[in-house]
Amino acid sequence: MPLEMKVSSSAIGTSIGPVVSKVERIDSPARPSPILCRTVTMPENTENASKVARLLYTNSGVGVLALGTNGVQKLWKWSRNEQNPTGKATASIVPQHWQPTSGLIMTNDIPDSSEKDAVPCIALSKNDSYVMSACGGRVSLFNMMTFQGNF
């Protein structure tokens, strides 16, 4: 059931374009098995890629939130348009990297000690307004519209 996937933004500016290189899936009528993902990266450029530690869909289904091993969180949203009238997640449309006009970045505290011991965690509020996360350091709370943190 492994799935290898690489996420790259080099081809389409700030959007992501997943490239699936190997998929094996076994479905059972009683219980479909999930697809496992081995590696996902979220590069700004080829020299500065960060592995994704946690990845989740927004509760509304219009975006994907990734927490990188470097403590940075990134948000991709699907646009509402002719090809995607609902604006919800779909494999036929590439989501766009979204950031507030202020340019703020959601970054978690990363301790200087061993990164291997850290357990990255991420959770969204029911209405997708806030994200609470940690990456080995203190827990951070971010507003999803402004990316301002730790109120």
From TrEMBL:
Q: Which domain of life is it from?
A: Eukaryota
Which Gene Ontology biological process is one annotated for this entry?
Answer: regulation of DNA-templated transcription
| Gene source species | Corchorus olitorius
Entry protein name: Uncharacterized protein
Q: What is the lineage of its organism?
A: Eukaryota, Viridiplantae, Streptophyta, Embryophyta, Tracheophyta
